Amino acid sequence: MEGTSVLSFILFHPMSSPSNSPPTKKHKIYKITSCHSPLCYVGCTARSLEKRHYEHVKECEAHQAGRRKNVCMSSLVVFKGDSHIELLEEVDEGDDHRVREKEWVLQTPNTANTKIPTYTCRDWQLLTPNGQRYLRNQSRKVTCEHCGCTVMHKNILRHYQTKKCMAVQAKNNTTHAVSHKKNTGGLAAVEPAQEGVCQSCVQE
Ligand SMILES: [Zn+2]
Question: What's the 147 CA to ligand 1 centre distance in angstroms?
Fold first, then answer.
């Protein structure tokens, strides 16, 4: 049954003649600018740009009138009163518009956007200097102060929990255990990029 439907899909939606296929709904990636603001705002909508712009304006007005607490960052551009909206790209229904939106947000200078769609911890690591330093620290080899093993920096905390290392630690007295705790604390403190990294990514 499934094979039949796939076949009929191919037969009735041939890739070679897009004019025959039904019109696909498109997501529009847009930019809002103002002559009086150095900032701009990048967004995405499946509706008309005019309607979306109107919503941004109304949201900003409601915020200024105190009727709305949380407000979209587009307000930083819209509140100037002379903002206008322009189309950056239309994305086909099948494509991931959020990925394209993210790329536009990242490549457009002076965006007021604070939320970046599909922006992951990995993106942060690859794109920011802090993130890159974090990745370098992670792959750096360090020597365990207890057993002398060479361990990847990112695995050192897990290494402390291994039987081999714990056996060496057990031989040491309690004073040493206290200093071990201090060392662990120090380790986390030296790592400047630790902040802002999600825990699921840290525990690889
Ligand atoms: Zn060790």
Answer: 4
Tell me the two tokens of residue 194.
Answer: 């630790």
- Per-chain residues with Cβ under 5 A from ion ligand 1: 144, 146-147, 149, 165
**pLDDT recorded at residue 68:** 84
Q: Where are the domains of the chain?
A: 26-117, 120-174
* φ, ψ for residue 41, nearest 5 deg: -130, 130
CA 185 centroid distance within chain: 28
* Predicted TM-score (pTM) of this structure: 0.50
Q: Read off the DSSP letter of residue 35.
A: T
From the CA of 167, how far away is ligand 1's center (Å)? Answer: 9
Q: Calculate how far, in angstroms, residue 188's C-alpha sits from the geometric centre of ligand 1.
A: 17
**What is the third-level CATH fold of 26-117?**
GIY-YIG endonuclease (3.40.1440)
Write the pLDDT tens digit of every residue in 113-165: 877 777 676 766 676 677 777 778 778 888 999 999 999 888 888 999 999 99
